[in-house]
């Protein structure tokens, strides 16, 4: 299938200059799916200029209620295209259609609704300090924002950034992953339908080169990047040159601590499911299960049995199965992790290298459980980004915390225990941005992000919006004076 890709710049659909293109394959069949034009220097310059001009044309001065009108329209546009989004996401990155409908699309809508709530309750542009009417803090838009997103939750990541930048009063250039350009294209159509003033939202199809140009552009004041830690480091270096505001949402190796007093059956079932969700291609996947010595054997047996019930199948088929990984590079990377872990002494109790039975083409991986893993093995420290659960034992709380903090990442951690004091102590001592206890998910609008190599800053809710705003302290004038 070929698709007539366009950038969306200054309110118009623009034919890409595209000296370079990228061939994309269907993750389930490996057949060529489309050829994607990659934005170059001229495309980037035009998009940033459009965003910059739109600031001066008045977007900078919009009120909270004006911004909310467009956000409500965006939510309605996505709601109207729920099925279309689900099919496109499934086709592009391989997640099964039911998963895309229930999670990929709905998660993005939830974040956008979270921004509505945050703006309505906490979004005031001027806030008095300590009830002193003569002293206030003003939240002003940073200006032009560069938004760069990955392919694994393609609509969700776009919604988190565009919704927040829009509510903050910024103008923006969105560059989604070159691996999921159709999702970005459909999102840009939704933005067009909101009838935002021209230039407030601009969209480019491109890869790393466009990303680099967008992060280095002198007119850009804020950069929000979600992707690999490797690319995040390059983005951080570019951002430092102009002292640009930076939000980085990067990789993870999130530990899931199972203490002996937890509800073992529930903890293992949920732990396996969390690791295998989206075929393991989630930054916050609970990919490292840390198990207290006394329940280790029981957990290993149970995790293997549960993993054996998972199966992979075609993305377009209805059902709770797992789809393929996004592309060949990701497939090879995950195979290498499994083989390397076994060579280093890990025991494979479910799955293993190679494709699942009956699937001879496509980037399908066997849901895999590796046990008796030690902290020095690559699979215990690095992000696999595939359906590979790694299990390691711990002696006591101190040992659990040490092992949980061992990797360079600090995105999320999961704790299973019926002892609230123990869980609280572990939550306090683990170095991560998000901690979930006994399967309780984050509240809508709670901050999303990590520490160490997992990134800088937070997305979602009011924290996501404030990431695109500059704080100005004004004293000696009351709000009524200004009005
Ligand atoms: P990636 O780093 O290869 O690409 C991400 C985006 O960055 C793409 O749009 C790409 O074109 C662009 N890019 C690549 N190099 C760039 C550069 N030098 N300068 C500017 N832009 C550049 O990552 P990916 O493979 O698309 O995504 C998977 C990674 O994203 C995983 O590591 C995953 O953990 C991470 N991720 C993190 C979160 C989070 O919230 N922490 C969420 C989702 C994904």
Overall description:
With 483 residues, the chain is an alpha/beta fold. The protein has two domains: 7-250 and 454-475, Aldehyde Dehydrogenase, Chain A, domain 1 (3-Layer(aba) Sandwich), CATH 3.40.605; 255-443, Aldehyde Dehydrogenase, Chain A, domain 2. The chain contains 16 helices and 22 strands. The chain has helices spanning 41-56, 64-80, 82-93, 97-122, 154-168, 181-193, 208-216, 229-241, 264-276, 296-308, 328-343, 378-381, 397-404, 420-429, 461-466, 479-482; strands at 7-9, 12-14, 20-25, 32-38, 126-129, 132-141, 144-148, 171-175, 201-203, 220-226, 245-249, 255-258, 288-292, 347-350, 368-371, 388-394, 409-410, 412-416, 434-437, 451-452, 455-456, 469-475. Strands 14-15-16-13-12-18-19 form a seven-stranded mixed β-sheet, with helices on both faces. Strand 15 (368-371), helix 12 (378-381) and strand 16 (388-394) form a beta-alpha-beta unit. Helix 4 packs parallel to helix 5 (154-168) and helix 7 packs parallel to helix 8 (229-241). The model has no long low-confidence stretch (mean pLDDT 96). Bound molecules: nicotinamide-adenine-dinucleotide. Nicotinamide-adenine-dinucleotide (NAD) binds next to helix 7 and helix 8.
């Amino acid at each position: 299938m070929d698709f007539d890709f366009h950038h969306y710049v200054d309110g118009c659909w623009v034919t890409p200059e595209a000296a370079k293109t990228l061939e994309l394959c269907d993750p389930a069949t490996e057949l060529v799916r489309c050829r994607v034009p990659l934005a170059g220097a001229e495309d980037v310059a035009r998009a940033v200029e459009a965003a910059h001009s739109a600031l001066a044309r008045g977007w900078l001065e919009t009120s909270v209620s004006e911004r909310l009108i467009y956000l409500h329209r965006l939510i309605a546009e996505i709601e109207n295209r729920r099925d279309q989004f689900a099919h496109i996401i499934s086709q592009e990155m391989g997640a099964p259609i039911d998963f895309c409908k229930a999670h990929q699309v709905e998660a993005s809508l939830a974040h956008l609704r979270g921004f509505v709530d945050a703006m309505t309750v906490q979004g005031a542009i001027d806030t008095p300090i300590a009830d002193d009417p003569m002293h206030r803090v003003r939240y002003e838009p940073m200006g032009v924002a560069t938004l760069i997103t990955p392919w694994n939750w393609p609509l969700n990541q776009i919604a988190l950034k565009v919704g927040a930048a829009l509510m903050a009063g910024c103008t923006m250039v969105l560059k989604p992953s070159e691996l999921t350009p159709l999702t970005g294209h459909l999102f840009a159509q939704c933005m067009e339908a909101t009838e935002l003033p021209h230039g407030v939202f601009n969209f480019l199809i491109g890869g790393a080169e466009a990303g680099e140009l967008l992060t280095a552009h002198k007119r850009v004041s804020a950069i929000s990047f979600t992707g690999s830690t490797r690319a995040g480091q390059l983005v951080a270096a570019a951002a430092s040159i102009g002292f640009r505001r930076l939000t980085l949402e990067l990789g993870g190796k999130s530990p899931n601590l199972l203490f002996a007093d937890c509800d073992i059956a529930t903890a293992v079932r949920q732990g396996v499911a969390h690791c295998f969700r989206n075929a393991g291609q989630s930054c916050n996947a609970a990919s490292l299960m840390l198990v207290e010595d006394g329940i280790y054997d029981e957990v290993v047996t149970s995790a293997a049995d549960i993993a054996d019930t998972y199966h992979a199948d075609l993305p377009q088929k209805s059902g709770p199965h797992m789809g393929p990984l996004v592309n060949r590079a990701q497939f090879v990377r995950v195979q290498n992790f499994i083989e390397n872990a076994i060579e280093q002494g890990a025991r494979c109790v479910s799955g293993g290298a190679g494709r699942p039975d009956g699937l001879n083409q496509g980037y399908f991986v066997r849901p895999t459980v590796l046990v008796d893993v030690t902290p020095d093995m690559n699979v215990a420290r690095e992000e696999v980004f595939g359906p590979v659960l790694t299990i390691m034992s711990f002696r006591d709380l101190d040992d659990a915390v040490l092992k949980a903090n061992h990797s360079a990442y600090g995105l999320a951690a999961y704790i299973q225990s019926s002892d609230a004091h123990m869980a609280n102590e572990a939550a306090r001592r683990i170095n991560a941005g998000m901690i979930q206890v006994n399967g309780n998910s984050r509240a809508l609008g709670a901050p999303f992000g990590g520490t160490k190599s997992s990134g800088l800053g937070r997305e979602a809710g009011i924290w996501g919006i404030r990431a695109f705003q500059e704080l100005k302290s004004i004293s000696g004038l009351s709000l009524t004076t200004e009005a």
